[in-house]
Amino acid sequence: MEIRVTSLNTFESCPRRWFAENVLGLKLPNAAADEGTATHAVAERWLKQGKGFPGFEQAAREEVAKHPTLTEANITDVVRMAKRCVKNYERPLDMELHAEVRMTMFVGNHRLSGTADVLMVPIFPGEPLRIIDFKTGRNRKPTRQLAVYAYMALNTVATQAAREALVRYDWVRLGEVDEFQYGPDELAETADWVKAQVSAIDAALRGGEEAFACNPSGLCAYCGHAQQCPATRGEYQPLQVAPAEDLPEIPQNPELLTREMAEKYGLQLLAWEAKVKQVEDVLKAWTEKHGAIRAGGKIMGKMETEPSRKYNLKKVFQRITDKGLDPFKYISLTSTEAKKLEKEGVDLDGTFTLGKAQCRWTVKKDDAAAATAAEAASAAPATVGTSGERVDATLPALAASAQQESGKGNNQTASSVVQVVAAFGQTLKQAGAPEGSLTMARQAYRLAEAGKLEETFWDLLNNSVPDGLTPEVRAELVAQLETIERLAVPAEMARAS
Ligand code: SF4
């Protein structure tokens, strides 16, 4: 099968989406992607048509007309971006320039393919090969794409000429560039990554659609498979934000809180933060495509910021001195820069005075809890999960992984329900509940992760509470069950309606 390099990132973010797009051919119309295609086409025509090129405006008009998702309003952007693209066709004297170079190579049984917008091969051996890719998106986020192109180019078209590659992402919409240099080590690492991705695709292809795991995120809203995807139950549910009256009452006077209550609010805070992050991800993806929104007197969306200034400190120093001022009153070393200097081996001992220590509200990783969880995970025997597969994770480890996922904020399964179910399991484990109880809690956790908050989920949770617990532990578990119910039921009702 032919596998496009650009699709490898899709596979990494959601294998099921890769399957939908590359095997089933399901893709949603995407104006942003079409604008990129039109821009590339205009730039290529400028290069190849020579005197026959009708001018940027006319070429853009013709290319925009080929895409039903685009309108006249896109022409200005296409012209602006194409003009920036063609600047990359200027050839240094010691390079051969090739445009729109299609590269292919076999990885296992599959043909990996990609097209470099610009490939410059050095005339003299020893110089790095150069690759430029025009990026028309609004999201400046380099991927592994050009590292893979570099690996392919060095192993196909430019074997003799170069051993290293200099790659550039030209963000033509934003007017920014990102450059990276790849030597033998990075290229070997890239080769390993490519092989791992392709062999994972190969293995999944042998297993059929079910072997491609779903990984829901804010990007589901733009997935052509969302209607059939089991993770979204055939309908993408953006998010259910709990109405204010559903939130637990927070006492105005902190003195009324016990430590136990404070820790519960801490857990709740993490759940809210994870939810806020999810809302942000969805809005970022939406506004990326449809433009900024207005809400509550604010405008939200991607906006151009003032370009940041990079001062030439030598000149600044000189200008301050010229004014008869003391430059050291105005120029200081930040702690980040100091750390960089220390990394370079500059000894800064005795060059600073200590400021006042500050006490600030801080949320950071609880290393002790993570260590306890890891210890418990390694000590516990492997058990069998709901679908019969071997599961080595214990409940504390699951709780830790849920917290980690909530930190990423990009996975719907890492919702507050999942976290509280993990905490529930942890309470059971700490109370010395029998293995049968823990297995039920673990199965409930798996169902929560999969978003299956149905009858079996509740049965498992309720039946997992064993007899013989102390009243305190029982009360703790009941409180956790109530929290799970409060968080889960509104979402389920919304799904059902
Ligand atoms: S809807 Fe989401 S989880 Fe399902 S395939 Fe698409 S991206 Fe993946």
UniProtKB/TrEMBL annotation:
It holds the Pfam family PDDEXK_1. GO terms for biological process: DNA repair. InterPro entries: PDDEXK-like_dom_sf, PDDEXK_AddAB-type. GO terms for molecular function: ATP binding; DNA binding; helicase activity; hydrolase activity. It comes from the Bacteria. Residues 5-230 form the PD-(D/E)XK endonuclease-like domain. Keywords: ATP-binding, DNA damage, DNA repair, DNA-binding, Helicase, Hydrolase, Nucleotide-binding. This is DUF2800 domain-containing protein. It comes from Heliomicrobium undosum.
